[in-house]
Amino acid sequence: MSHERHPLPVTRFAPSPNGSLHLGHAFSAIAAHDIARAGGGRFLLRIEDIDGARSRPELAGEFRADLAWLGLEWREVAPQSARLASYAAAAQRLRGEGLLYPCTCTRAEIAARAKQAGPEGPVYPGTCRNRGGADATAEGGVPVAWRLDVAAALARTGPLEWDDALAGPQAADPARLGDVVLVRKNEPASYHLAATLDDAADGVTLVTRGHDLFAATHVHRLLQALLDLPVPKWHHHPLLLDDATGTKLAKRRNSPSLADRRRAGECGAELAAALRGRRFPAGISLG
Ligand code: GLU
């Protein structure tokens, strides 16, 4: 008889402090919280605060107050700004293995040259891939980003799969995002590298987040294989959409923020109950 133990679910909510949280975030946090709770596991809060220019660290306090107002309980783990050494070490390792190359292209250049639209915007056309890495880093003063050579990485790992709780098994297809940036110009890491490393370090077993990040998971799965990280499962939940535009709720548009609602005296527990029951305010629906 097998006595294999199934780990208790560890989920997380990982907001970026670049704007107040809205109903979509509440829905996401509640989903992650409730899955962990139902399985006797743990729900983590991680502040993703390395988006230097737009990051407003003071919002972290507002986020905590919002989650408490909704009636959630969590354990907070280190913010990304406290983990820069782990990002640098991982980037160094991949660079040492010849899997990253420096890129000096600007957004405008990429937009002008890109031939393909990907899930996260224009797919990088590979301009800097064969330019000779050593020379590019020596271009005094010109900021460089470091991109993952996805073809070389896949040649090393072979085919990969990942599993989504709602969508089922997926064949990893990171090439559809192109050679993504792992180390941004003047920033220690991109979202892809930081979030993948953090989820492993935090022992996350079920990465619960919105469907808008579904495509990013193809890249995260590749990074896990390259960096020998444990492979979690994912749960990409549907997004709350603005009926008028058919687009996801955004931080600065649509409905009032959670903080606005909280300060106006609305009951957070009632709002949480409504979201759990899929009862949304007029003009908002689940995609
Ligand atoms: N920090 C991201 C955001 O606020 C979420 C990242 C994730 O859940 O993987 O959109």
UniProtKB/TrEMBL annotation:
One Gene Ontology MF term: ATP binding
Cellular component, GO, one term: cytosol
One annotated GO biological process: glutamyl-tRNA aminoacylation
Domain Glutamyl/glutaminyl-tRNA synthetase class Ib catalytic: 10-257
Superkingdom in the source lineage: Bacteria
A Pfam cross-reference name: tRNA-synt_1c
Keyword terms of this UniProt record: Aminoacyl-tRNA synthetase, ATP-binding, Ligase, Metal-binding, Nucleotide-binding, Protein biosynthesis, Zinc
Record-linked InterPro entries: aa-tRNA-synth_I_CS (IPR001412), Glu/Gln-tRNA-synth (IPR000924), Glu/Gln-tRNA-synth_Ib_cat-dom (IPR020058), GluQ/Sye (IPR049940), Rossmann-like_a/b/a_fold (IPR014729)
PROSITE patterns in the record: AA_TRNA_LIGASE_I
Family, as annotated: Belongs to the class-I aminoacyl-tRNA synthetase family.
PANTHER family, per the entry: GLUTAMATE--TRNA LIGASE, GLUTAMYL-Q TRNA(ASP) SYNTHETASE
Protein name in the entry: Glutamyl-Q tRNA(Asp) synthetase
Source species of the chain: Pelagerythrobacter marensis
